[in-house]
Amino acid sequence: MKYPQFDKSEAGGGATPSRAETRVEDTWDLTPLFKSTTDWDHDFALTQRLYPVIEQYRGRVGESATTLAEMLNCDKRLSQLIERLYHYASLRAAEDSSDAANLARESQLQNLLTKVGEASSFIMPEIMALDDATFAAYLAEPALAEWACKLEKLRRLKKHTLSAAEERLLALGHSAIAGHDEAFSQLTNVDMKFGKLTDDKGVERDLTQSSYSSFLQKRDAELRHRAFTQFYAEFDDHKFTLAATLSNSVKADVFRARAANYPSARERALFQDDVPVAVYDNLIGSVRANLAPLFRYYALRKRVLGLSQIRQCDTYVPIVGSVEKVTTFDEAVELCLESFAPLGSEYVNALADGMKKNRWCDRFENKGKRSGAFSSATFSAPPYILMNYKDDVFSDVFTLAHEAGHSMHSWYANRTQRWQDADYPIFLAEVASTFNEELLTHHLLEKTDDPQMRAFLINRQLDDIRGTVYRQTMFAEFERDIHAMEEAGEPVTLDTIRQTYRRLLEAYFGPDFTLDPQLELECLRIPHFYSAFYVYKYSTGLSAAVALSQQVLASGDATKYLGFLKSGGSRFPIPTLREAGVDMSSPAPVEATLALFARRVEELEELLGE
Q1: Is the pLDDT of residue 1 over 80?
Q2: Which of 47, 50, 278, 568 is the residue whose CA sits 20 to 30 A from 294?
Q3: Whole-angstrom Cα distance, residue 606 to residue 129?
């Protein structure tokens, strides 16, 4: 079965509106998926009736190429139906997870998916039971021509596929094993309350996971620290529950890896994309070897902001305060469209229609809405974008560009590839998203001859590289370490989690940085850690995006890049990017991005007279 993937990321006055109080024009239009919840109920009931049909192929998958093709097409029809159900239910829950009907819909579907998984659990073992000669002969048959790519990818999993009975048990246990993710989401998005905080204009505002980023960009250092302290006080109150949730997430990863005969949870995660472990370790090694420019940047921040000491809550406010910007959502859309002009009229016009006419984007925060931002697409529906846009947080313009990159990646792939080959892995997704951020940076720098604005934009690019390469690599190292602890039989408890994270904070922030004790709890609130071995792809993705964007801007030719978008998941990530013009099996792209960071620090020092 194939299900849509989400890009979960951290997000970023007055009271936060309820969903019912939100203007319709500021919400996404989900009617292309289902006209109403009644229609969803109808298709859910239809799926309940139809899914047992897959059972007719049990014990017959390998009898001929024709039978295998029939089974795959039957599974495809069922999967496409489930995909739409899943997409709608997930988006409705994301827009308001305090709505009982939205949660019930997700729960209904999760129960059904367990049954579907059990019914179809024989498919993989029976495909893998084919001997190599028979498998090769079947692939040469015209009946399987459209499935060759998918089958070759599946075949790689042969040594990690269990017997039909064992696969059935894993399918039955999926929901229970994955329960940590839902528990984390409900606790942090619904149950946890952060209170109110008076901002720099004297307005009392809700402190939420979304508005927290807005407070961290205020010029008042004391306000930033108050927001930090108040925000983390709530996490401190729930630290044992969160630590247990994270520990169970790690245990689940290790269980899945051991059950399927992988050497480690990390290798299981990387195997799916055929990414060598060396790529992960080279990333950490390259970043560790280039921390000096980051420490230099923190020292510059401290001097320019006039701080006696620099804390983590001081790392998000723009250094160049005189060009603090208020940018409406509509203005942000126009800036993005202008920036993407090098990609051609088809790209720009399709995105403009989606954002302006067809309501692809759910724009602003409301009570119960999932924090952060994501793009979510399925084969037969628009690529939707969830935002919690704040007009006083200029980085949200870049977040919009980022998610638009994901959406247009899906738009191209779904129009070029077959359903079974369109869905691209996250490793590639993070290239398309950060590529757009690079185009936006270039466009804004080209538009200005004001030294202050240039300094502001360079500051923004530095923070982007800091947050995407340095920070996400620290996260990747944390994930590697806590999984290794579990695999070695060491305790993964609140104390050991905090100790491990503290060591990384000290290494990545340097000796002249003030680390508040509460920051040790940060690792408990990062959504990515509950879906492990995802974050390293942010770092590799940005590094690839820097290289590809420079190629497009220098040559004026986006043909190869658009070919990359259109390729979807038809090839593995490393060869796909190599075809587009960048070799991620080498540490060179990461090192080039870190070198760009070092140059930009020097340029910012000059612009600011430091």
Answers
A1: no
A2: 278
A3: 65
| C-alpha torsion sign, points 371, 377, 381, 384 | positive
Q: What does the CA dihedral 183, 188, 191, 197 come to, rounded to 10 degrees?
A: 170
Question: What per-residue confidence (pLDDT) applies to 167?
Answer: 85
Given the residues 83, 403, 477, 520, select the one marked as catalytic: 403
Interatomic CA distance for residues 218 and 71, integer angstroms: 58
CA 387/CA 99 separation, integer angstroms = 19
Q: How many other C-beta atoms can be found within 10 angstroms of the C-beta atom of residue 242?
A: 24
Question: Of 12, 101, 1, 3, whose CA–CA distance to 372 is shortest?
Answer: 12
d(CA 138, CA 141): 5
Say how far apart CA 351 and CA 404 lie, in whole Å. Answer: 8
Bridge-based pairing state of the strands 384-386 and 361-362? parallel
Spatial contact of 260 and 160, defined as CB atoms under 8 Å apart: yes
CATH of 31-177, one of 1.20.140.70, 1.10.1040.10, 3.30.70.580, 1.10.287.110: 1.20.140.70
Cα(396)–Cα(325) distance, integer angstroms: 11
Q: What is the DSSP string of 346-359?
A: HHHHHHHIIIIIS-
* pLDDT exceeds cutoff 50 at 543: yes
- CA atoms of 459 and 317, how far apart (whole Å): 10
Query: Which residues is 386 bridged to in the sheet?
Result: 362, 374
Q: Which amino acid is at 520?
A: E
* Burial (CB count <10 Å: 0-12, 13-18, 19+), residue 201: exposed
Domain pair 1-23+188-276+324-584 / 31-177, same fold: no
Q: Which residues of 98-133 are buried (b: 16+ CB within 10 A; e: fewer)?
A: bbeebbebbebbbebbbebbbbbbbbbbbbbbbeee
User: What is the mean predicted confidence (pLDDT) over 69-82?
Assistant: 95
R_g of the chain, CA atoms, integer Å: 24
Residue ranges of the alpha helices (H) in 96-218?
Answer: 100-119, 123-128, 132-139, 148-155, 164-177, 179-186, 211-215
pLDDT band at 199 (very low <50, low <70, confident <90, very high): confident
Give the residue extent of every domain in the chain. 1-23+188-276+324-584, 31-177
Question: In terms of C-beta density within 10 A (0-12 exposed, 13-18 middle, 19 or more buried), how is residue 559 classed?
Answer: exposed
- Our CA angle for 547, 379, 151, nearest 5°, is 80
CA distance 98 to 104: 11
pLDDT, one tens digit per residue, over 564-577 is 999 999 999 999 99
Residue pair 85/44 in contact (Cβ under 8 Å)? The answer is yes
Which pTM value belongs to this model? 0.81
Using CA atoms, how far apart are residues 582 and 187, in angstroms rounded to an integer?
A: 41
Instruction: Give me the phi and psi of 466, to 5 degrees please.
Output: -60, -45
Give the tens place of pLDDT for each residue, 446-475. 988 888 889 988 998 999 899 999 999 999
What is the token pair recorded at 251?
């245990």
CATH, domain range 1-23+188-276+324-584: 1.10.1370.20
| Maximum distance among all Cα pairs of the chain, rounded to whole angstroms | 75
Residue 403 is among the residues annotated as catalytic for this protein: yes
Q: What's the CA gap between 227 and 196, in Å, rounded?
A: 10
